[in-house]
Write a structure and sequence with these properties.
The complex is a heterodimer of chains A (about 800) and B (about 200).
Chain A (H helix, E strand, L loop, with lengths): L2 H7 L6 H9 L35 H5 L17 H18 L4 H42 L2 E3 L7 H4 L16 E3 H5 L6 H29 L8 H8 L10 H16 L7 H16 L3 H4 L2 H20 L2 H12 L5 H21 L23 H31 L6 H16 L3 H4 L2 H9 L32 H24 L9 H25 L4 H4 L11 H17 L3 H11 L5 H18 L4 H9 L16 H4 L12 E2 L3 E2 H10 L4 E5 L7 E6 H14 L8 E3 L15 E2 L10 E3 L4 H11 L3 E6 L2 E7 H11 L11
Chain B lengths: L4 H38 L7 E7 L8 E5 L8 H4 L10 H7 L1 E6 L2 H32 L2 H9 L5 H10 L9 H25 L6
Antiparallel strand pairs in B: 1-2, 1-3
The chains are: A mainly alpha (about 800), B mainly alpha (about 200).
Chain lengths: ~800, ~200
Amino acid sequence: MDQKGYRRGSFQSSTSDEDMLEIAGASLDFSVADDDPPLDREMGGFSSYNGGGMNGTSTMMDFLEEPLPGVGTYEDFNTIDWVREKSRDRDRHREITSRSKESTWALIHSVSDAFSGWLLMLLIGLLAGSLAGLIDISAHWMTDLKEGVCLAGFWFNHEHCCWKYNTTFTDRDKCPEWKSWSQLILGHGEGAFAYILNYLMYVIWALLFSLLAVLLVKGFAPYACGSGIPEIKTILSGFIIRGYLGKWTLIIKTITLVLAVSSGLSLGKEGPLVHVACCCGNILCHLFTKYRKNEAKRREVLSAAAAAGVSVAFGAPIGGVLFSLEEVSYYFPLKTLWRSFFAALVAAFTLRSINPFGNSRLVLFYVEFHMPWHLLELVPFILLGIFGGLWGAFFIRSNIAWCRRRKTTKLGKYPVLEVFVVTAITAILAFPNEYTRMSTSELISELFNDCGILDSSKLCEYVNDFNSTKGDDLPDRAAGPGVYTAMWQLALALIMKVFITIFTFGMKVPSGLFIPSMAVGAIAGRLLGVAVEQLAYYHHDWAIFSGWCSQGADCITPGLYAMVGAAACLGGVTRMTVSLVVIMFELTGGLEYIVPLMAAAMTSKWVADAIGREGIYDAHIRLNGYPFLEAKEEFSHKTLAMDVMRPRRNDPPLTVITQDSMTVEDVETIINETTYSGYPVVVSRESQRLVGFVLRRDLIISIENARKKQDGIVSTSVIYFTDHSPPLPPSSPSMLKLRSILDLSPFTVTDQTPMEIVVDIFRKLGLRQCLVTHNGKLLGIITKKDVLKHIAQLANQDPDSILFN
Amino acid sequence: LYPGREFLFPQASTMFARCTRKCASSVLLVALLCCVLSPPAQASKSSEDIRCKCICPPYRNISGHIYNKNVSQKDCNCLHVVEPMPVPGNDVEAYCLLCECKYEERSTTTIKVIIIIYLSVVGALLLYMAFLVLVDPLIRKPDAYTQPLRNEEENEDARSLATALTPSGARANTVLERVEGAQQRWKRQVQEQRKTVFDRHKMLS
């Protein structure tokens, strides 16, 4: 791994290379004229690694004189070269620091360069927070639009319409300004006909919103559909998807996210908010040269932007940073940790100042109670964890099966019709049950709520005994009829949500997963909580309850069970660990409930991992065939590098370019006949001694540019990669020097290197390809795609499913 | 002339030149979002935007009631808001213990501005889509638009080359031609994306 350092720093030991070769006893003809002396570097100036190879003294203009536009950039659907990007950034930084001593302008430039990262984080936080505020307020309004309209101003939703009016205690929703559709059209709101009219309007609005969403996605930005997190994970691991984080994708994703959420479909907005925040990050990177030109630095910014996205979705800055660290990012240097936290804080603060929910809360379902829990309640919490794990594994399996069917059969040819049908089914099934008619966030908020005297919802309709009420503290009470109705309605809602989410996630509208999973868990948790509460009330003399739950005490909090259930289900689906617990305890504002949350999260993860190893995002990555090298799994097979490298035994030999004996025409033939993304450069075909590696894209751009701009370059011109042109007869056409695009330090391994080490190298350094040598001679090449196919083959999966280059 | 000066202007001008085209749209986006942020910052607290909400549960034979009143935060308690007091003087304290008062504020201007911005963006997008689908094919010559459809087997290299060299190639002369060129490029991009996602199901299935 230290080859670059060896080249650069070993000026003193000028003969060590030759010494080592002689000691090894190699019988090569080591004539110095054949290849470059090992330490050929320009004195004095900066010889940048692979970009702009200047010689001579460095001047101010050298900094501006760049290599050809296009050299050093990447094609779409290709992997970046992390090592090259990082060293380019180090060179740039060294250049700026060394120049900062020369003039005041350069000093200011170096200070502003150092400061630009923080400024960028500030802008990302502001933009992400404002967009999240826009999404929240618009989604809130449009969700209520399905039910009625406010006469005082059409832009008010139900809650804000009735804000000024004194509503009654039992009917907190009714006020004269808010008219449901049947009231508006018919004049009254009661009766069967009014109910049918409301039903019809609800379904029509839902269909209208979802159709609009899918048409906008299809027409303007097809990349805006889905959750976005699997693709962002792949992008952050080094893949390039042009347009995925662009302006149009940002606009369309924001707009259609609101439409999709408002149409009543069983999806959430947290995953798409991460995509929106990353788009903001990518767009704002273009303002700063440091991040615009360097793909590795840009990915650091995108990690921070993802943290800001989760932070505004949940109002949890720390949870957002941990989510970015655990789930989304591939390389997360410590410097990014501090900056991500800053971006997440700024985003949360911006959202808070926009105040979408009217009470300085960032999330609708903020929990405000702090009731204690007892150790024996860990048993139901672990039960909830097991349920969460089972549901998570079931959901992943069925969703992947459905998405695979959508990908391969005719179902995928009718995306608009699919959205229409799913929305129609969801709306038709959801309206009769009040718990599915309300938006999922409101449902979660109601389930998390601890019943007090001031609540008058159906779920809190317990049998009150007024004589024994002491102040605000309500004891465990017997369930009234309202609670029983609520229980079976919730059970129906649970079944519906479990099944409809399978078909909803992955449709061609922006869809997130967090809220539906939390809803399923919250319903299950609340059901279990009420059951335990009633059990404790009616059988307070049993041994397990008598110790801590005497009659008249308030011991069981069903709201807490709902919260633990939500965490368990979310953990079962996404397999988040630390970030999940931190997000949940930031939602509750206290550390009392860490132990139940952790117990449930760990149980659900273990149960789900026992059934299927991958979380939902990794499963989607594998389904789509993205070239994502999993960083968490161990490679445990005993294969060697020569089993994986190309060319295999029966393949034609490796396509190489010689360092000074090929003409422009030869190189163009090679480029046209093969489709490899890069070619090794060797000293000569007989010796196969490695000089370096050159990329296809750079070759094409340089040759085209040379043909146009440089005079004398024809098809028979010789291309040379050495420092000094090879001796040729004077009548030959002028030669083309392409040393500046040659990567002089490609990574090599020997053919006997175990694949464990090779996979480790690929993961830790982010390589695209690695050359394989045998006794010092070039033998073959291993690319990232070969590694992925090898892993897939050994895991008995289909190696042909790795699609991209 | 101090030494830095001759280098100052070329550097600054090249930096700005490189910045202009790419930055313009991003700066526009940031400016638009600043307009979104400024209403909440400047929103004056109109009288209908603050309230103190007191919820009082049923007490003895008095039913539950919700009281709203427009008072400041320090006056937001049961004694100031609950009017008329339904219980006689000696019971007031017991009644007020049960009541819960919360101070809330909102910004109607923010809500109005955001909803109107959202609806106008949706409307603009719908109009643009209608324009592209209905009007555009009529006023443009068909071959310029269907070209990408024919060249499906286009060599990736040639395409990447074209996109790499177009910035340095011949610049369109008038603003209109530049806008049209940008629009054609965007349409091609969207078509490529549509093929990848919807037809070949290569991504985002």
